[in-house]
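Good morning C.,

I know you're traveling, so I'll keep this short. The sequence:
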Amino acid sequence: MDEGRVPKASLHQEDNAIASLVQLERSASSQEIANALGELAHKLRAPQNRELSRALAVWVRRLVLRRFAPEGEIMEFEDLPEAHHMISERVESWTQQWLQQGKLEAEADMLRRLLTRRFGPLSAEVSAQINAASAQQIEAWFDRSVDASDLVQVFSSH
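The tokens, ready to paste straight into the viewer:
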């Protein structure tokens, strides 16, 4: 099935589990995944869908969540209702982690730009050191880079 050709209007049909699967696959955020999982779990709540719910939960865990769950956070769940519950609980913490990671990456980029403008192209070692640094360390290097006469002064520990 070509998911890209499914009209958005058809994705909100009351009893159409396939539409919910397409919605789940198109999800662009963890909140959208949680919402689509809730709809899908509701549509497949009948006892005869228990095995299908378990199989889809495995699919969600192995494929869909890889786009959103922080690296190393592997959730175990048995079926779609449990998946929906667990993901809904984590949406806010994931969002906070992404925001913090984005802020750290932006600060590292700004430090690289400043250092490059002041001292020329950065070596791979310096870039790796910045990539591995904490937010506090990046801030300290940024502050030192304003007055430093060379990279050695920026990265010195005093």
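Safe travels,
E.
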